[in-house]
Amino acid sequence: MKMPLRILLVVLCAVLIAAIPFIVSSPKMLDNVQVDLMEEDGDEIDFGRLLLSCAAAEEDLEVVELEEGQLDPHPEWALPLDFTPGNTPDPDLYTDEGYEDETIRVKTEHRQLEEGTTAHIAWIQISDPSQIRTAVANPDKIKTSKSTPSISTLAKKYNAVLAVNGDNYNSEAESKPLVYRMTQKVRNNMKSDKRDVLIIDDQGDFHVTVRSRQAVVDIANQLKEEGRKLVNAYSFGPTLVKDGELAELNPDYQYNPNRKNPRTAIGQTGKLSYVVVVVQASDREGRTGLTHAELAGLMKDLGCISAYNMDGGNSSEMVFGPYMWKGSENADERGLNDAIYFATIKPEN
């Protein structure tokens, strides 16, 4: 091949290479990005970056950084509002002080309130309302099942990051005015004002009543008007904190209101933020544990907007991965109908 022809071919190849970005440039590439790249470093063109036009466009995308301590919301990971278990927690993330992945944070604390009385406290932050859930022994026979597994059994079955006892809804069934489990109506016997009610909606918000059937009706109507769902409703009580203030307690309320006992309480402290407390008593003689009023004071001090008393005594129990704290430290696990639990929605893979 003659030298002039070889030189001509080399020049033509160089021109073609330079023209490739303009011929096959990514349709996603922004015009101003192309201009910026060509004007970089004066008259010199970075052909390497032009050839990687897609990557160049991605470099200009806004990166959203989470604030310190903020969880990463993934609405597409949300769990259905039924009895589907949560995703499996990572056992390597548990410590005796807490658990954290990008969708849930749990911090545990243990306070010696007085001699023989310890409060086991768990602070929970979730990224999606579907992560606060109820486990039941038999979802297929939710209204009639007499099955009473332990809380640890329910926690394992439903992949709970943390679980506590609920209100044992099928025990003393007729005295519980309103019971919902994961949007399913179990019972609606609004015949008296003797029981306080806790309602949790599909945004994870708590609504509590104080001996008022009409308040329950008003809450249900308000949720319907706002297009929100009633997900869970509990009828044990009493309500301990309402609108950030101590609730008016009935001295004749059921469950030994004025006697020191092991107790379980759950409260909301902010948007998708909660605190769960199991009060452990070293005896059942009324010398250790807390009264309703003392428990209410504790929940208010913990910053609750709303707080509610669950089943207590030997039913009080918190299961947190490999850890377990019971209200009656020397008692065996009691079989119950249900548990309140918090789940991770981080995909298992």
Q: Could you list some keywords that capture this structure?
A:
single chain, 349 residues, alpha+beta, 8-stranded antiparallel beta sheet, 5-stranded antiparallel beta sheet, 7 helices, 18 strands, 21% helix
Description:
By secondary structure, the chain is of the alpha+beta class. The chain folds into 2 domains: 3-59, no CATH class; 75-342, no CATH class. It has 7 helices and 18 strands. It has helices spanning 3-23, 31-39, 47-51, 53-59, 151-157, 213-225, 292-301, and strands at 98-100, 104-114, 117-126, 132-136, 162-165, 178-181, 184-188, 198-201, 206-208, 230-234, 239-242, 245-246, 263-270, 273-281, 306-310, 317-320, 323-326, 338-342. It has an 8-stranded antiparallel β-sheet, with helices on one face. A 5-stranded antiparallel β-sheet has the order 4-18-5-16-17, covered by helices on one side. A hairpin with a 4-residue loop joins strand 8 and strand 9. The longest helix is centred in the N-terminal third of the chain and has 21 residues, at 3-23. Residues 21-66 have low confidence and may be disordered.
Q: What ranges have pLDDT less than 50 throughout 5 or more consecutive residues?
A: 21-66
Radius of gyration: 29 Å
Helix-strand makeup class = alpha+beta
> Ends: how far apart?
60 Å
Percent of residues in beta strands?
Answer: 25-35%
Spatial sequence of strands, sheet with the most strands = 1-2-3-14-13-15-11-12
Number of helices: 7
The major β-sheet equals: 8 strands, antiparallel
Number of strands: 18
Along the chain, the helix and strand elements come as HHHHEEEEHEEEEEHEEEEEHEEEE
Helix content: 10-25%
Oligomeric organization of the protein chains: single chain
Average pLDDT confidence is 85
How would you describe the shape?
A: globular
